[in-house]
Each structure stands twice: as C-alpha cells, then as structure tokens.
Predict the structure.
Amino acid sequence: MSRKSRLWLLLGAFVIVLAIYVGLSYESYLPDERTAMKLELKQAFPDLQLVTKQGEQADLKTFDNKQKVIFVVTTTCKVCNEQKDRFDSFAKHLQTKGVVPLVIYQDKEQKSFKDFKNMEDQFYLNASLKLSNVTPTTIWLDEENQVLEVDFGDYEGRRYVEKNFDFTY
C-alpha cells in the first residue's frame, strides 16, 4: 500500500472516530425537555421514585413526622457547586433544629454525587422526572410532606427558607 493510500486510510479512520464521538456526546448538549412538576404551597409533595447512592429504591416516607428541607440540584449546576459550602452549613443548622436536610439530584443521567457533608441523605430522582426548571431549588416540607415554601434559584432575596430558620452564612 502506498504512503498516500495509508494517509487517506488514516484520515478516513479519524473522521469516523470523530463522527462517533460527536454523535455520542451530542445528547449531553441537548436541552432538558422533561416537564417540571407543579409544586404548590400547602399541597402534598409528589410521591417520588428516588434512588439512593447505593442504587436502592427509596421515598420520603422514611422521614415522615419530621420537617424536611430538600435541595434540588444537578451535578452540572455551576451555582450548586459554588454554593455547596453554604448548603452544607445550612444543612448543619437545620439538623440543630430537628429538620432533615436532603439532596435530590435531578440529572437526566445518574452521575457521581458531589457528597455534601451534612445532608441526612442524597438521592437521584427517577430519570424521567424533574422537580424544577431552576437549580438550585430549595423546598421546605412539613411533617406530613406538605409544601411550605419553595425557593427557585439562589438569589439573596429568594432565600425564604433560610430566613424562616434564622440562617445566615
């Protein structure tokens, strides 16, 4: 085989490998088209299919009769990652008040946890579901899983849940 033929063969193989790579990674750049659940104040929080870090099925009934604060995040959320220490401090503060802090990752695919230090537990949301169009979202539930407050985003003026628990960072 001539040198020119080998060069064309190598170039063709490179183009095929590049096309496969682009095709496989393209899906991760598509917008998340899952519809967010409707969360209404003073209404029951939806009964979710959660998956633990160990891959076991779980639900919020484990934490019945306790108030809960749920941090809804994604592993790719820049703000979620930047504010991780504040979320951990808030979680520790919540535990002193008898409130269960939880993290729910709503990524389309299960990725590695960022391991929050002070959270009671961390879960993946069933991949077909989405709690919020905005991350981070903080949801405060009462003892009977009724929604008391929802903070969409992490804007200083929207931190109502933190204000309810007299938390400052």
Notes: The chain is about 30% helix and 20% strand.
